[in-house]
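Side project, low priority. Logging it here so it doesn't get lost.
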Amino acid sequence: MLEIKDLHKRFGDTVALDGVSLAAAAGEVVGFVGANGAGKTTTMRIAMGVLAADSGQIVYNGAPLGVEQRRRFGYMPSERGLYPKMKTAEQIAYFGELHGMTRAQARASAAALLEQLNLSDRAGDFVQDLSLGNQQRVQLAVSLVHDPEVLVLDEPFSGLDPIAVDVMGTALRDRAAAGAPVIFSSHQLDLIERLCDSVVIIGNGRIIASGTVEELKAKEVKQLRVSVDTDEDLTGRLPGTVTRDGDDYLVEDTDDQEVLRIAAAAGRVTHFAYDQPTIAEIFREAVTR
C-alpha cells in the first residue's frame, strides 16, 4: 500500500497543499481529480521525491518511503521527459537500464510494451517524429518498462484519441490486476469513472471528497425514478416531492416503499431505482460547495 499522509506545502505565500492524505492499496486504481492548480501535481511530485514537503509523510507498506523503494515505482509526469532524437525502442530500453535492468531484460521488456501499446511498427522511429499521442504511449511505456511495484501517473490520457485511451486504460488495469497500486490524475472524468476503483477529489490544496466510486455515488443519490405502465397521472398520489421527466416520476424526500406500493397498485412498474450521479456531477457539486 502507498499512503500519502497529511502533506503540507507552501510556495511563498501560496498554500499548495493543506493536509492532503490519500492511499492506494495493492491492485487498486485511484483517480485523483481536481481543477488546475488544486494540488494534484504537487502531491505526485512529493510522492516521487521530486519535491520536498514542508511536513507530512509518504509511507509504503507501513514504512517511510525511501530512494530504493522509489526506484521500483513507475512515474509519468504531466510534461513529457523523453529524448526526441532517440529511437522509440532504444528510448524505452534505456530507461529500463536506468532502473537497474540488464540490457537484454530492458530490450525484451521494451519490445513487449511496444506490442501491448500498438507501437511495434514505430520501434525504429525517432521519438520527435511520432505524433503527440504516440509520444504519450512511449511515456507510459517508459514508466512501465521495469515492471514497477507502484504507478503514479500525472494526466496520462492527455491528448489521446479514443483508441489510444482504450489501449492505455487496458495497460493500467492489467498492471493493477498484477497487484500494483495505481494513482493517476485526469480531467477526463468519464475515464475516472470507468477505470477507477476509488476517487479522491482535491480543491485548493485540500481533500474535499474521497471514497469508492459506489460510495461517492451513493452519498449524492437524491431522486427516485419511477416508471409505471398506466394512463393515470400519479403526481398527486405519490408521497414526497414529485416532478415529471417525460413519462417518469422523479420523487425526493419520501418513503420509497410507499412509492412502490402506490405505483404497483396503479400498474406495471417498469423502472424503480434511485438515479446515480456521474463522477463529473459529483465533482462539480464538490468543488462548488
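Brief comment: The mean pLDDT is 91.
Revisit when time allows.
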